[in-house]
Design goal:
Layout lengths: L2 H10 L2 H12 L4 H11 L2 H17 L13 H6 L3 H8 L7 E5 L5 H6 L4 E6 L2 H11 L8 E5 L12 E4 L20 H10 L3 E5 L7 H6 L1 E7 L2 E8 L10 E6 L5 E7 L14 E5 L1 H6 L2 H8 L2 E2 L7 E3 L8 E11 L2 H11 L1 E8 L6 H8 L5 E10 L2 E9 L18 E4 L16
Parallel strand pairs: 1-2, 1-4, 2-3, 4-5, 6-8, 14-15
Antiparallel strand pairs: 5-7, 6-7, 8-9, 10-12, 10-13, 11-12, 13-16, 14-17, 15-16
């Protein structure tokens, strides 16, 4: 970076920029019109920085409750850990001790750690390190945050009680789950572990970590609002159960809503029939491979292996399960399903699929009918055959993020007439 670029970032961190950003966000004038006014006050670069930050703060509100006081880069925001998950992860670190946050980015995890620890935030990117330290500071906060611009592998992590690392998974420009493509690479991270084994490593939910790490660490998958946000490998004293797997659901405050810990069971007992209720495990449970363990504890059976849906004759209200009461089980035949939904006058249809190659959005569009009734269609395999399960989603009294009721997990849901189909339909992630 040249001198002027550094000065522009320092200005962005100043109280003067805070006032400009606050006023721009509060204005009802569109940003492109505000730009004309800002250009009279600021240099072109600082004007662009202000407009970028206003837009990024609006996007960041879904992740950070104090987004209006934070500063971001587009890439940093995409990769950052959200408030709830960061607070929960920080709760597993020793309070009041000195810790390091390596490859800190714009400080998602740092905001949680700085609430209870003295933290050194390290990143090779000067801008990211400065923004991270800025984002972590809060009035009355006990922790101290110090930014360091350096290669994480060269920092003396042995000087800290524990450390956290978020390896760059976009070093090649595209997001990857491959550990071999992480930066720092696995060998460099292993050297850090050899110097100080008390560590937490953040990875993508689908990343397959090296076998020695799986044997040494506790692998935890963390979800919020039924979306699996990340995988964390806890090493040394930070691990609650070495060599075990954990699925944890947290709320916006970082409190644990539900948790299961155990060994991966890939082949739980398979159901001989589809029972009165079908359950979908939380995304963290599925990512952790703990659906079989959960089925065993709750006396449920899988519809197929590996289990994505469980079934039983008893209603179970559990935060790690989304429940459905079965009304019909029919073959996956579009003509038969179309007749069924027209007869039932289903006008609001949620379509979910697991283990079957189909497009839920197209299925929904073809099946929705005129009428005021609602239904959920689960398309999956029973044994080796595709099957359609028509069901009613069970409402839950379990609250999450302070809101009572059950939030539907990812799927396609449409309310209204086919001609006015909502534009934000989403295909369920089935990985």
């Amino acid at each position: 970076m040249n001198w002027q670029e550094i000065e522009d970032i320092r200005w962005l961190l100043s109280n003067a920029a805070h006032i400009v950003l606050r006023d721009a966000a509060a204005s009802e004038i569109p940003l492109h019109r505000q730009a004309r006014r800002l250009r009279k006050m600021l240099s072109p670069t600082r004007c662009r920085l202000v407009l970028q930050q206003v837009a990024l703060r609006a996007r960041a509100a879904a992740k950070f409750r104090h987004a209006e006081r934070m500063l971001f880069t587009a890439r940093g925001l995409e990769q950052a850990t959200d408030d709830g998950v960061a607070t929960y992860k920080a709760s597993r670190f020793p309070e009041g001790e000195s810790v390091a946050d390596l490859c800190c980015g714009i400080g998602g995890d740092l905001t949680g750690l700085a609430k209870r620890c003295d933290v050194v935030a390290c990143d090779t990117d000067w801008v990211a390190a400065r923004l991270a330290a800025f984002n972590a500071q809060r009035p009355g906060q006990p922790g101290v945050c110090s930014p360091v611009v350096a290669d994480a592998t060269r920092l003396d992590n042995g000087a800290f009680v524990a450390w956290h690392i978020d390896p760059d998974r976009r070093a090649t420009g595209r997001r990857t789950t491959r550990v071999a493509a992480f930066q720092p690479h696995a060998q460099a991270i292993q050297q850090l572990l050899d110097r100080n084994p008390d560590a937490a490593l953040k990875a993508a939910p689908a990343s397959v970590l090296p076998v020695p790490w799986q044997q040494r660490a506790e692998l935890e998958w963390i979800s919020r609002r039924r979306e699996c946000r990340q995988q964390v490998a806890w090493f040394g004293s930070l691990a609650a159960a070495h060599g075990r797997r954990t699925a944890t659901c947290v709320n916006a405050s970082g409190e644990v809503v539900a948790q299961i810990r155990g060994a991966m069971i890939t082949t739980p007992p398979l159901a001989s029939r589809i029972c009165r209720f079908v359950y979908e495990p939380d995304a963290a449970v599925l990512a952790a491979g703990l659906a079989g363990s959960l089925a065993d504890r709750l006396d449920l059976n899988g519809l197929h292996s590996p289990p994505a849906y469980l079934t039983g004759d008893t209603r179970i209200d559990h935060r790690l399960l989304a429940g459905f009461e079965v009304t019909d089980v029919v073959p996956f035949d579009m003509r038969r399903l179309r007749r069924l939904f027209r007869t039932r006058r289903v006008g609001t249809l949620e379509v979910k699929k697991r283990g079957v190659d189909c497009d839920p959005a197209r299925v929904q569009k073809a099946l929705v009918a005129m009428g005021g009734n609602t239904a959920t269609l689960l398309i999956t395999r029973f044994g080796n055959k595709p099957v359609s399960i028509v069901a009613r989603r069970l409402e839950s009294d379990v609250a999450e993020d302070g809101v009572a009721g059950h939030k539907p997990s990812a799927g396609v849901c449409f309310r209204g007439q086919p001609e006015a189909r909502a534009s934000d339909e989403r295909e369920e992630h089935s990985g």
